[in-house]
Amino acid sequence: MKDVEAYIKNILKERKVHFTLIDPDEQTPEEALNIATEAIEGGTDGIMIGGSTVDNVGVDETCKILSENIAVPIIIFPGNTSSVSKYADAIFFMSYLNSNNPYWIIGAQALASPAVKKSGLEILPMGYMVAEPGGTVGWVGEAKLVPRNKPKIPAVYAMASEFLGMRFFYIEAGSGADQPIPPEMVAYTKRATDDMIVVVGGGIRDAKAAYTAAKAGGDIIVTGTVVEETTDVKAKIQELTGAIKKASIE
Ligand code: 1GP
């Protein structure tokens, strides 16, 4: 798909967006296609491909089979420099703002840039911030995790990101987190920025959590673990997208 950013903004004129995250490490490309197909039937608006420990072959093969079979955008959610595939439509080109290691803030991005340029992927510039509990990405990314009871901290990073020209800001609790991002944290972030697209993910498993994140100000709600855990992907995604739509119209 051409111009994924316009696609997202177009949906946001009407309602909030839901993306399904698929970790290529967790299943074969064929299984990933089945999950994506069911998630699209359930109303998801796009498929994100990524994880903290993915290999390039898994990313590439999964993006390839999806690109041949689905119509919604395929967006790379990179775990490291190897997460590049010309078969995706776009990449969240992200800086891990609260890492203690400059590699994750700008080093990996610089090293990956030639491959990203060659791939022709659409760039979606993003500030990325991980709050407690943080999970694998908190550990791998050597994060100074945002305390859950300090909801204003991501807001000032989001403002700075917007001033630096980023157009997306992701507040992450970590995949499989036992609790999602606190709604106050989402709300402060959304209010602090002008045109930034606020993405919320980590630990969102049911309609209530999806509704809460969207209602608080999340523009894109991301869920990943639920599709790995459920036996009925379509129904689960319907539950989440239904709640997000409800939050959008109220
Ligand atoms: C992880 O925010 C995403 O990067 C999704 O988290 O797997 O907990 O849905 P879950």
Automatic annotation (TrEMBL):
It is found in: Cytoplasm. The keyword Lipid metabolism applies. Sn-glycerol 1-phosphate binds at residues 170-176, 202-203, 224-225. GO terms for biological process: glycerophospholipid biosynthetic process. Its EC number is 2.5.1.41. It catalyses: sn-glycerol 1-phosphate + (2E,6E,10E)-geranylgeranyl diphosphate = sn-3-O-(geranylgeranyl)glycerol 1-phosphate + diphosphate. Keywords: Cytoplasm, Lipid biosynthesis, Lipid metabolism, Magnesium, Metal-binding, Phospholipid biosynthesis, Phospholipid metabolism, Transferase. Its main location: cytoplasm. The keyword Zinc-finger does not apply. GO terms for cellular component: cytoplasm. InterPro entries: GGGP/HepGP_synthase_I, GGGP/HepGP_synthase_sf, GGGP_HepGP_synthase, GGGP_synth. It holds the Pfam family PcrB. GO terms for molecular function: heptaprenylglyceryl phosphate synthase activity; magnesium ion binding; phosphoglycerol geranylgeranyltransferase activity. PANTHER family: HEPTAPRENYLGLYCERYL PHOSPHATE SYNTHASE, PTHR40029. Belongs to the GGGP/HepGP synthase family. Group II subfamily. This is Geranylgeranylglyceryl phosphate synthase.
